């Protein structure tokens, strides 16, 4: 027990390795660049699955829970020298007992970092698809593959025909230069590129939907045959679009003034909501029952379509950079404590950082290559990771942070005892989030079972 307590305290009070330097607008940009990724492109299909009325209700609820979760993480961390989500969990759990702090840290480490690896794999796959939508010639010789099994990415303006594996290798090489940032402060300017490029993508989608003369067979006013699983899949896609709280403590730890973190949360979440609502509903209203995920596959493959995919490519590469930076730093801190601190060890730091970040990149590439229908498999883990880390765990940490007597609460947190109403609200959020995770897991596994029985997933090089 003494060793566990010592390890807990070392991890909890691990100081930030360099002077915090990001402003709240940069922090908001990092949040947006991380969250506003490929998820937004699947929202029109999510609206199709949920229906307009149900999706509006669920979008308001999920957005509110996302804002609240982000604010709770900021309030609990406050100005303490805590860097990661796992450090924050250990700090709050330790208010129950030292063993609870260790267990909470272990839970967050397993869920958070496995989720980040999965997200990075999805980002690599999206980079590959973007490359194919820009350069790959369309193969018209095989038109019998069911859409549920294969949606080949290509362009009528394509210039070459390479295998999916070749495009994946190109994607890995393209991302490689971006994995060497050693802090989110260093990657701050890159986040602005990520926000700008995805904003351009969304504007193009909105404009094309507004001026589109597409006549679909299933207008939104006539609902297609929806099932309960379609609604749950839509909810999971919506939650995935708001998944990114796992990086918020890291982002707050590098702010000049951590007390301004709530500004970053409010601004980023409002920006996300605006983009999600415009793309999600306009996309569905335009293409109806024929809308696909991602919606870029519904758009014309012309010059503007190529430009859209170039912007999407750049954005997803930035999202990979942000997630890789956080994961690499966590591994380096765990394996070589103090390595990333200041000192005359630049070459050693660069070599070890490069070794870890490159290993992560290769693992993600291998998973993308070898695991069939990985995006569907990731939906299972997303249901666990997002519903817990974005919605349930922030409320749990907040309750634990206020666990001890009123005197200690006032000294350490500066808050009075929680009211029964506040406790009830957070308990309800935890219950709803856990239920959402369970339903999302069920729907994702059912989808995998359907595809496994219908499709050929043999590896094609």
Task: Fill in the keyword field for this structure.
single chain; 461 residues; mainly alpha; 16 helices; 0% strand; disordered N terminus
Describe the 3D structure.
The chain is an all-alpha fold and 461 residues long. Helix content is 68%, strand content 0%. It has 16 helices and no strands. The protein has helices at residues 2-12, 24-35, 43-50, 52-77, 85-93, 98-135, 164-175, 188-211, 228-241, 248-253, 261-287, 303-335, 346-370, 374-401, 406-412, 420-454. It is globular and about 65 Å long.
- Mean pLDDT over the full residue set: 82
What is the total tally of β strands? 0
Give the CA-based shape. globular
Please trace the helix and strand order, writing H or E for each element: HHHHHHHHHHHHHHHH
Class of secondary structure makeup: mainly alpha
Q: What is Rg?
A: 22 Å
- Beta-strand residue fraction: under 5%
Described by its quaternary structure, the protein is single chain
Report the span from N to C terminus: 51 Å
Low-confidence spans: 1-18, 143-148, 217-222
Helix content: 55-70%
Number of helical regions: 16
- Biggest sheet descriptor: none
Condensed summary:
68% of the residues lie in helices and 0% in strands.
Helices and strands, with pairings:
Elements lengths: L1 H11 L11 H12 L7 H8 L1 H26 L7 H9 L4 H38 L28 H12 L12 H24 L16 H14 L6 H6 L7 H27 L15 H33 L10 H25 L3 H28 L4 H7 L7 H35 L7
């Amino acid at each position: 027990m003494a060793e566990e307590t010592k390890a807990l305290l070392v991890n909890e009070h691990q100081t930030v390795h360099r002077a915090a330097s990001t402003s709240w607008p940069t922090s908001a940009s990092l949040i947006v660049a991380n969250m506003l990724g490929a998820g937004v492109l699947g929202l029109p299909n999510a609206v199709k699955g949920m229906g307009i009325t149900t999706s509006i209700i669920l979008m308001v609820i999920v957005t509110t829970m996302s804002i609240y979760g982000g604010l709770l993480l900021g309030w609990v961390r406050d100005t303490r020298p805590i860097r990661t989500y796992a450090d924050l969990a250990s700090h709050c759990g330790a208010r129950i007992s030292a063993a609870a702090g260790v267990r909470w840290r272990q839970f967050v480490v397993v869920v958070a970092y496995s989720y980040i690896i999965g997200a990075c794999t999805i980002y690599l796959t999206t980079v590959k698809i973007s490359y194919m939508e820009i350069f790959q010639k369309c193969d018209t010789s095989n038109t019998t593959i069911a859409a549920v099994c294969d949606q080949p990415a290509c362009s009528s303006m394509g210039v070459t025909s390479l295998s999916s594996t070749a495009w994946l290798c190109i994607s890995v090489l393209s991302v490689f230069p971006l994995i060497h940032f050693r802090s989110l402060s260093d990657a701050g300017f890159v986040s602005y590129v990520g926000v700008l490029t995805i904003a351009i993508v969304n504007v193009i989608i909105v404009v094309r939907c507004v001026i589109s003369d597409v006549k679909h067979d299933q207008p939104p006013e006539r609902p297609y045959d929806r099932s309960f699983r379609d609604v749950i899949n839509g909810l999971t896609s919506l939650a995935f679009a708001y998944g990114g709280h796992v990086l918020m403590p890291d982002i707050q730890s590098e702010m000049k003034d951590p007390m301004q973190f709530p500004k970053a949360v409010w601004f980023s979440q409002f920006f996300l909501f605006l983009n999600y609502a415009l793309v999600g509903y306009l996309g569905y209203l335009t293409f109806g029952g024929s809308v696909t995920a991602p919606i870029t596959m519904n758009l014309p493959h012309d010059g503007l379509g190529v430009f859209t995919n170039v912007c999407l490519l750049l954005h997803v590469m930035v999202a990979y950079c942000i997630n890789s930076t956080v994961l690499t730093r966590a591994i380096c801190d765990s394996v070589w404590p103090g390595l990333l601190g200041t000192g005359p060890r630049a070459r050693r730091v660069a070599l070890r950082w490069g070794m870890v970040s490159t290993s992560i990149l290769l693992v993600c590439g291998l998973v993308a290559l070898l695991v069939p229908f990985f995006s569907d498999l990731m939906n299972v883990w997303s249901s666990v990771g997002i519903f817990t880390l974005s919605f349930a765990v922030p409320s749990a940490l907040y309750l634990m942070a206020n666990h001890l007597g009123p005197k200690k609460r006032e000294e350490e947190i500066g808050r009075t005892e929680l009211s029964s109403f506040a406790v009830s609200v957070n308990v309800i959020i935890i219950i709803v989030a856990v239920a959402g995770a369970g339903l999302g897991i069920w729907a994702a596994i059912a989808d995998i079972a359907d595809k496994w029985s219908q499709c050929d997933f043999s590896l094609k090089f």
